[in-house]
């Protein structure tokens, strides 16, 4: 789903390819990863890899790369245009590891292990694409792709990196929106009074001036009606508005992306 926050009506679109379908917007908002899994029958027959296939395009629809990962499991989580890397949850043959978090180059000529998968999952690239923040066991970590090591920052889940590279937002153990430096020092910010729902991350706008998140509606009944709100906060003064009502069916394992020119994006989507 795409939600455009301007004077135009909200714009929704759904691609005309088989489900399940995965869409990942790049960290800089300039590339898009489109992914699909094969029908179960083709996997059972051995004619298709269970990992599926997809493409990476520019935001205006120009082809960048095709994706044919030879993996037993593949679930893309984050994309860096600067370093031309993908972060994903999956399982790589021959690595003798359980399902974990990995990063790979666009052509999969390089695939590196980051961490075992233990928790809610979710990860995000730094703006430079050289480090990856992820969650493990209820704590936020940062992995340095050059040094090939991780450091623990503090408690939290669904971490997302700010566009200026200075901060990482996450959902804290107290269910509130937390902010910390890349060294783990807590930082006060305008969203800390809110309790985002634990099934979507805090999403930064590309200029770092706004964040979007979902919050449960008061006195809502799950699965009936609109029980969640999509919220947007301006970080300079804390002004917050509700931009959409959502049911729990639409917020399960959902990410929300900021898109600069949604009209071009919707028009040029290769599968739209």
Main beta sheet strand tally, sense and closure: 4 strands, antiparallel
CATH homologous superfamily? TolB, C-terminal domain
How many helical elements?
A: 3
End-to-end Cα distance:
12 Å
Shape descriptor = globular
Rg measurement, Å: 18 Å
Total domains, how many?
1
Name of the CATH class: Mainly Beta
CATH topology: Neuraminidase
Topology:
Layout: E1 21-25, E2 31-36, H1 40-45, E3 53-58, E4 63-67, E5 73-80, E6 85-91, E7 100-105, E8 111-116, E9 123-125, E10 131-136, E11 139-144, E12 149-155, E13 157-161, E14 167-171, E15 177-181, E16 203-204, E17 210-216, E18 228-234, E19 240-246, H2 248-251, H3 262-268
Antiparallel strand pairs: 1-2, 2-3, 3-4, 5-6, 6-7, 7-8, 9-10, 10-11, 11-12, 13-14, 14-15, 16-17, 17-18, 18-19
Q: Short summary of the structure?
A:
By secondary structure, this protein is mainly β. It contains 3 helices and 19 strands. Mean pLDDT is 81; it is low at 1-20.
Explain this structure.
With 272 residues, the chain is mainly beta. It has one domain (21-268): Neuraminidase (6 Propeller). The protein contains three helices and 19 strands. The strands form five sheets. The chain has a four-stranded antiparallel sheet with strand order 1-2-3-4, with no helix packed on it. A four-stranded antiparallel sheet has the order 5-6-7-8, with no helix packed on it. A hairpin with a 5-residue loop joins strand 16 and strand 17. It is globular and about 55 Å long. Residues 1-20 have low confidence and may be disordered.
């Amino acid at each position: 789903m795409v939600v455009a926050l301007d004077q135009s009506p909200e714009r929704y679109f759904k691609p005309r390819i088989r489900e399940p379908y995965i869409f990942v917007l790049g960290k800089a908002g300039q590339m898009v990863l489109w992914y699909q899994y094969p029908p179960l029958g083709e996997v059972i027959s051995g004619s298709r890899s269970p990992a599926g296939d997809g493409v990476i395009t520019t935001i205006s629809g120009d082809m960048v790369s095709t994706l044919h990962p030879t993996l037993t499991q593949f679930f893309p989580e984050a994309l860096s245009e600067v370093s031309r890397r993908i972060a994903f949850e999956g399982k790589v043959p021959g690595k003798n590891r359980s399902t974990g978090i990995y990063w790979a180059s666009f052509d999969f000529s390089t695939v590196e292990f980051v961490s075992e998968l233990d928790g809610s999952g979710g990860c995000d690239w730094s703006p430079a694409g050289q480090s990856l923040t992820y969650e493990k066991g209820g704590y936020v970590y940062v992995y340095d792709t050059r040094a090939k090591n991780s450091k623990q920052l503090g408690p939290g889940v669904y971490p997302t990196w700010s566009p200026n590279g200075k901060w990482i937002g996450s959902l804290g153990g107290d269910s509130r929106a937390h902010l910390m430096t890349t060294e783990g020092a807590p930082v006060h910010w305008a969203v800390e009074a809110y309790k985002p729902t634990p099934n979507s991350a805090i999403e930064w706008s590309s200029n770092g001036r706004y964040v979007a998140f979902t919050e449960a509606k008061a006195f809502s009944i799950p699965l009936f009606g609109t029980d969640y709100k999509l919220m947007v906060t301006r970080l300079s003064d804390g002004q917050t508005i509700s931009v959409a009502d959502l049911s729990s069916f639409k917020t399960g394992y959902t990410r929300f992306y900021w898109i600069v020119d949604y009209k071009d994006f919707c028009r040029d989507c290769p599968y739209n």
